[in-house]
Structure formats: structure tokens, C-alpha cells
Design goal:
The chain is 36% helix and 20% strand. By secondary structure, it is α/β, with parallel strands linked by helices. β1 and β2 form a beta hairpin. The longest helix is centred in the first third of the chain and has 25 residues.
């Protein structure tokens, strides 16, 4: 064969393509009929067992696995080992776990799972939300999974109480809204809990926080400044609260208060309190305000409230002002100043008869710092400002940004400027900051404001 012919033959021969690797969603789609048949047969088998309702999940799991082994030996369910392994896990998850979303909950790369009715499932990975090819058989199937999720939480969701906040056994936060409030079927949101948590070093490496700002916040917590963390939904407020609590000394007694427990304080002497919804008769409700008031009788050095959003706000401010310095909380807000306005509004709506100026004086004397977080369009979460609450100027609460970022666009993409000191701080804050043994050398203020 001539050289020219060999060259032409080489050019016309297509390059071999790498083998296609089937995704989990593709396997779900391909194996759906077999999955439905196996699930129905295993359910029927378990239902036929005597005293099933009194048996533990571990015993039921063993029985289900034994039945699956028997079924897979049948010619009806002959298949490759990979398919058998996948279906074995999927059937067990569906009957004794959380159905088609169990593997999503197990996936460490997923931070949030969102179910909008039986046929729409979304996940968040690395700050990006995407729809996946996963579905429940029916709304009733989804309701069964929801009931299973709530089984160990002591909470309920039904037509008389169609919304619920709870936590799963692994600490993940669960929110459920039922029809008719949720028009397109039950809406389920699961915010995953990461047991390892984040450290301040993690936030610095991810550029959520600068090293200087991290040192400043560490010294501020050690110096017992009252700190309010603000931001929108999903900006990392609870993560920041956990990180700040790492700077609290082991010799301090801390009480945490939340609607659904998410905080993981490291201190030895810590009491974690959680609210309780009313029972079916409408009695027995324990609200955040009840727990804040009770916490004052528990001899805490500090109180950490997961989020202030109602009448408990005035009690939290009074606690910060009466011997519980160094307390921490979060609030939904769009800026540090908006956070302070939100606190004012919640105090006024909480039934207090204080005039507006008195409320603002309470806010100004109780809160020392506001740490504000955002989440940008590409999913990055970071601190944009650390703001001091300086005091009152006339009838207005005066603030000063101690750390801030600029906004800039480089090469057509959103750059993330470093969180840098503005050089501003009040003499009052400077004195408290410099007095703490954790303050880095060379800390100084740039004069009074």
C-alpha cells in the first residue's frame, strides 16, 4: 500500500471513543420497571410477617435483604451484578429509608435536597442548583417518606398542622409544607448537616474570610463582644455562628437555643435547647422566647440563639446587656444596617411598649458587631462587611464598617476582593479588643468615631 493510501486510511478511520459510563440517574431510568416489581414483592413479603409493627428497622432490613436474595435467584430477576447491587440498595432505601432521595442524602457533595412534589427533585452542589431525574411513585409515596423522616423527631405534619421544621437523625434540617399550602404537592427541603463542620481556617482558605478579619473576630469573641450574624437564606449564617463559637473558652457555660438543632458547640459545659411545637390539641408549645427567658435562670456565661425573628428579640437584647456579654445570634437581613432595623422592628412587633428611641438605645448598647454574609450568583458564600455598632447619634444608631470588600470585575468574571480593614474603630471597641489576651500584636484603633 502506498504512503498516500496509508495516510488516507488513517484519516478516514474514526478514533476509538471511550466507553460510556452510566450515571446514577441513567441507571434509575433504565431499571425503574424492575425496581417497581422488586419493591412491590418485598413490601408484600414484609406485610405478611406477623407482628411486623413491633419489629425494629434492623430486623426488617435483615428480612428484606433475605427476600431480595431469594428473588435475585429467580430467572425473572436475572441481571448483571452491578444492576443487582444497585437495585438491592434502592429497594431497601425505598422501604426502610427515604426512598429515591436516600442516596442524595448520603452523597457528601450535595448540600441541599429540594423536593417540589412527587415528580420534581433538585439538589445543590457547590452552590449550584440542578434538577435530577428522580421521582416518587405518587404523592402518597412521598408522604410515607416524610412520615418516616419525622418518626424520630417527635414532630408531626398533617392537615391541621401543614408545616413543620425538624431534624433528621444525622442532624440535617428538614422543612415540610403540605397541600393546600403547597399547591403542587408536598414540598420538602433538606439542608444537609456536615458532622465535621467548618473551621475558621476553612473559611480563610475558601476566601470567605480574610486572615486579618478571622483574627479580629476571634479576639472579639474572646473579648466577649456581642455579635449578630446577618445575611439572606443559604448564605452560611449558621456555619459562621459555629465557627465563632470555636473561640469561646472551655471554662465558660454556654446555652444554645434553636428551632431545630444545627449548632455543634465544642465546649464541655454546654446546654442545647430546642423549641417544641404544640401537640394535636394545640397545647404544649415551647417557643424561642420561653427558652431565652429560662436560659437566664441556668447561669450561662453566654447565650447563643440560632436565629432571632420574633418576640424573643427583646429578651435576647436584655440578656446581652445584663451580664451575658459575648452572646451570639443571627438574623435574616440584606445589610448590617438592615439587620439593626430588623431587630428594631421585631422588638416593636413583639408587644413591647417602649418608644422607638428607647428600642434603638437598647439595640445600640446591646450589639457590638454585625458580621454580614452574602451568596453570589455562582454560589460562593462570604463575609462582605464586619460593622461596629458605635452608639447613638441623635435618634439614629451609628455604625462604622471595620472590614469591607470592594466590587470589581476582572477579565469578564466576578473577582472576589479581599476583606480588608478600613482602619476605623471606636475607642470603646478598641479598648475591649486590645484588652483580650487573644488579640494579635499591634492591634490598634484609628481614633474615635
Amino acid at each position: 500500500m502506498s504512503l498516500r493510501a496509508r495516510v488516507l486510511r488513517h484519516e478516514l478511520t474514526p478514533e476509538p471513543q471511550p466507553p460510556h459510563i452510566e450515571t446514577i440517574d441513567e441507571m434509575w431510568s433504565r431499571l425503574q420497571p424492575l425496581f417497581a416489581s422488586l419493591t412491590a414483592e418485598v413490601r408484600a413479603y414484609l406485610s405478611s410477617l406477623p407482628d411486623r409493627s413491633s419489629m425494629s428497622d434492623d430486623w426488617l432490613r435483615t428480612q428484606a435483604e433475605s427476600e431480595l436474595i431469594r428473588l435475585f435467584k429467580s430467572p425473572r430477576f436475572e441481571m448483571p451484578l452491578a444492576d443487582e447491587t444497585f437495585l438491592r440498595r434502592a429497594v431497601i432505601d425505598d422501604i426502610l429509608g427515604f426512598g429515591p432521595i436516600q442516596d442524595l442524602i448520603n452523597d457528601p457533595s450535595i448540600s441541599e435536597v429540594m423536593v417540589n412534589g412527587a415528580n420534581a427533585v433538585y439538589v445543590e452542589r457547590a452552590g449550584t442548583i440542578s434538577k435530577i431525574e428522580r421521582a416518587f411513585e405518587t404523592e402518597e409515596h412521598l408522604r410515607r417518606v416524610v412520615d418516616r423522616m419525622l418518626r424520630t423527631s417527635g414532630r408531626r405534619v398533617d392537615q391541621s398542622s401543614p408545616m413543620v421544621d425538624a431534624r433528621l437523625a444525622d442532624g440535617s434540617r428538614l422543612n415540610v409544607v403540605l397541600p393546600p399550602l403547597s399547591v403542587d404537592g408536598p414540598a420538602v427541603t433538606i439542608r444537609k448537616f456536615h458532622a465535621t463542620g467548618f473551621t475558621v481556617g476553612d473559611l480563610v482558605r475558601q476566601k470567605s474570610l480574610s486572615a486579618d478579619a478571622a483574627r479580629f473576630l476571634g479576639s472579639s469573641v474572646a473579648g466577649r463582644l456581642n455579635i449578630l450574624v446577618s445575611g439572606g437564606t443559604g448564605t452560611g449564617k449558621t456555619t459562621m455562628l459555629n465557627v465563632l463559637s470555636d473561640f469561646i473558652g472551655q471554662d465558660e457555660r454556654v446555652v444554645t437555643i434553636e428551632d431545630a438543632v444545627e449548632l455543634t458547640p465544642h465546649m464541655h459545659n454546654v446546654v442545647r435547647l430546642e423549641t417544641r411545637p404544640p401537640n394535636a390539641e394545640g397545647r404544649g408549645e415551647v417557643m424561642v422566647r420561653d427558652l431565652v427567658r429560662n436560659a437566664l435562670r441556668m447561669r450561662p456565661d453566654r447565650i447563643i440563639v440560632g436565629e432571632v425573628r420574633g418576640s424573643e428579640t427583646i429578651d435576647m437584647l436584655q440578656a446581652m446587656n445584663t451580664g451575658h456579654e459575648g452572646s451570639l445570634s443571627t438574623v435574616h437581613a440584606n445589610s448590617p444596617r438592615d439587620a439593626l432595623r430588623r431587630v428594631e422592628t421585631m422588638v416593636l412587633l413583639g408587644g413591647t411598649d417602649l418608644p422607638l428611641r428607647a428600642v434603638r438605645e437598647q439595640v445600640a448598647s446591646s450589639i457590638d458587631l454585625v458580621v454580614h454574609l452574602v451568596r453570589d450568583p455562582i454560589g460562593r458564600r462570604y463575609v462582605t462587611r464586619i460593622t461596629e455598632v458605635v452608639g447613638m447619634e441623635g435618634d439614629i444608631v451609628s455604625t462604622a464598617d471595620l472590614f469591607s470588600r470592594g466590587n470589581q470585575v476582572l477579565d469578564g468574571s466576578l473577582a472576589l476582593p479581599e476583606l480588608v480593614s478600613t482602619g476605623l474603630a471606636s475607642a470603646r471597641l478598641g479598648a475591649r479588643y486590645a484588652a483580650t489576651p487573644h488579640a494579635p500584636a499591634g492591634t490598634a484603633t484609628s481614633g474615635s468615631r
